[in-house]
Amino acid sequence: MWQFIKYVFATIVGLFLFSLLGFFLFIGLAAALGSSEEKTNVEKNSVLKLNLNNSIQEVSVDNPFAELTGGQGDVIGLLDIKSALANAKLDPNIKGVYLDVQYPMVGWASAEEIRDAIIDFKKSKKFVYAYGEVMTEKAYYLASVADKIYLNPAGGMEWNGLSAEYDFYKGTLDKLEIKPLVFRVGEYKSAVEPFFRENMSDASKLQNQVLINTIFNHAVENIAKSRGISAAQLKNLADSLSIDAPQDALKYKLITHVGYYDEVETSLKNELKLKEDDKIKFVGLGKYIKADKLIKDGPSDRRIAVIIGEGAIMSGKSNDGNIGSETIMEELRKARKDKKVKAVVLRINSPGGSALASDVMWREVQLTRKEKPVIASMSDVAASGGYYMAMGCDKIVAQPNTITGSIGVFSVLFNFEDTFRNKLGITFDRVNTNAHADWPSVTRDMTPFENNRLQKSTENIYATFTRKAAEGRKMPLAKLQALASGRVWSGKEAKENGLIDEFGGLDKAIQVAAKAAKLKEGDYRIKYPAEKNMVEQFINKLTGNAEEQLMQQKLGDFAPYLKVLKKLQQMQGTQARLPYDIVIK
User: Fold this and answer.
1) Residues in domain Peptidase S49 (predicted)?
2) In the predicted model, what is the mean pLDDT of the chain?
3) At the N or C end, where does the chain have fewer CB atoms within 10 A?
4) CB-based burial of residue 324 (10 Å sphere; 0-12 exposed, 13-18 middle, 19+ buried)?
């Protein structure tokens, strides 16, 4: 028996050591591949192939293993896509672009920037092909500017309008006997509604209905221009669910061809004047970004620094999915002290978060703009705390479909007393030196006096937010407050209301910054942030998955409830956060 146990134990140890060795070999191989800076030699008569079905973030994640396939990583950068298209426009060896687009994991404003970059590429008179086995609305929005749009005969196209659905946790909290205590300012500050409602309030439904209508109308107008179809007809097709099969999309001229991939290849070969047995020379994004750059950098002593903040806002250092106020402050200070940097573009893609962290970054923007121009560039979303970051800049640039505004704050506390007593059998008692020494507490009901103090504190932070926003936008406080109350706006509405200055993406913001710094076109260099490190991302995901698996093993059916509690834990302190997690489909 002991001999058997010994063998089992030895096997377990061996498997563990083998896994550990494999992990370190993986890290070593990734580091070795990552250190390779070999340039890509683009052959004549090549086609730039863009797979837009991966997760698209502001900055790519460096994936050295993409070299082995000539493709791209799991997370591709918006900057890389735009840079590749701009370079391919000038590259005599690139004859056209092939878009593989079905389920792009990207926001609407980022999709707008990619679409604009494709339109700019087409000025070179080179071809653009798009193909998908299926296409979502967002995929079609990107594909709609292509010269030829192919849809698989057995596939389909989603064209039924946009929808936004939200989660509500009141039922979960009731089952767990957790009492939410909410303090908010603003009729539209509905980020806390999931904790005490089972559906949207009338105010929340109104703002979200207007938001998705504006975004869809903007998309329809642009598609109408690209395809030569009236906006009214496109909306009727969505209302009537007329696009049921690929042949329907062809009938109504939304696409140009129904065909399989081999038929797309045949058409491309004809475009490239290739023989039937010849191979198409595709070059993927991962390789093409290492090709010779045909857009020359300007002088190194005149730079525009691009600082990117992507994710929820919190205090401390930035990490995957979060903007750390300390990291943004450090970047702003470096740019401020660097004499070669003549202007700064603060690129923001955030639904908000900690009000304190947002204000800390606002202060650093103020210090920087005293010495050089600071321009805000809003991406998919720059709302609440994200708008807080932008409102102190000299100018704000956003897309018409950027989600912004939500000028409001909230605080939320949870009383777990009944949860601990009734679910776990744990009770609490205390002694205090003063009447409110344990305030605020999550294990007892608060008194009306204590509640009033928290509400007053939330109102004070809101007053600071709106005052600074009014100062930044140079408008009367009363007018700003009429636009606030937590109301979410599209970029189009924000411009009409004076909350932003100009429409455009990152490139437009850089142009605005150059003009403010009195720099001529071609007379400066753009300093972009470095790629994210794949190995660090892998370790973060590995440890995160391990924690989730352990949680599932230990808690079983209660694991989902703990996930809810962990989400609540992230909302520490007063929050300047967007209502819900807005996902528009």
Assistant:
1) 121-274, 368-520
2) 87
3) N
4) buried
